[in-house]
Amino acid sequence: MRRTLVVTDLDGTLLESGRGVDDLVRSVVRTARDRGALFTIATGRIFPSARAVALAAGIECPIIAGGGAVVGTPSGEVLSQLYLDRGVAGAILGMVGKGAYRYAFVGGRILTDTPGDHAIRYSESLGVPIEVVDDLEPRVGEQTSHIVLRMPPDRAEALVGTYASAIGASARVTRTLPHLIEFVNPLASKGRALGFLCSLLSVQMKDVIAVGDAEADLDMLDAAGVGVLVANAPPELRTRVKHVTRRPGTLGVLEVLDTYLPVA
To answer: Domain boundaries in the chain?
Structure first.
């Protein structure tokens, strides 16, 4: 029997800014399930943070975390994991220096050597503690899934291309949010992880409905049978997809369900 899989980005899409998992989010998950579809999330958050959201929202399918670097179950089993090369991780930090707030995701932990109020807010938004260390460079090792830089949006926009050119094919460089630049294994992407997940669930890619709001979601939207941006996505991305909702965030995801999974 053919099954539909609905996969949605988290921050800015299923979860709106400043809001956690609430009754509206849980109703989205229930609505998809009641209409016969599987439902999951694909997020740039580290796996422990994404897993906590999945459990709170009632998601039962395996989830995509770390921008596609991790696929795992809400119960905690890791099914697929990609890491940055240790030398590449060190080279990234050396290239960046301390001109930005820096975070390394190592073995399921978040480390920073640029502490401050921003780190506290970031920790609160992810629901995961951030550990302060003297220097990140000697701490990145074989289990560094990604490195994240936080800076003003205009500076992130100006630098993301520079960093991508400098690091070449050694890492995938994207802006996951206007103020965040992320470095991951070059094979890690939401689209690739979605293909792996579909093979696990015996779902065809043409039967996937994918929803997002950012550049990091585009390869997932392209890979899916139906790819949709919610209304709060940056205007420059809208020309790159066929479908854009009228409503933002969580309400936009509900709009997608009503459009592509109507009540029988």
So the answer is: 5-81+188-260, 86-184
Kindly state the average pLDDT of the residues 124-151. 89
**Distance of alpha carbon 197 from alpha carbon 195, whole angstroms:** 5
> Any idea which residue has 């949709």 for tokens?
228
The pLDDT value given to residue 264: 64
Place of tokens 């709001």: 213
The answer to whether the CB of 144 falls within 8 A of the CB of 104 is yes
Domain boundaries 5-81+188-260, corresponding CATH code? 3.40.50.1000
Torsion of Cα atoms, 44 then 48 then 80 then 37, to 10°: -70
* Average pLDDT score, the chain: 92
Q: How do residues 11-69 score in pLDDT, each as one tens digit?
A: 999 998 777 899 999 999 999 999 999 999 999 888 988 999 999 999 999 999 988 99
CA distances from 106 to 48, 84, 92 (A): 12, 10, 15
pTM above 0.85, yes or no: yes
Q: Which two tokens stand for residue 170?
A: 């050694």
* 188 phi/psi in degrees, rounded to 5: -85, 125
CATH number of 86-184: 3.30.1240.10
| Segment holding 229, helix H or strand E | strand 226-229
In angstroms, the CA 20 to CA 84 distance is: 29
Amino acid identity, position 232: N
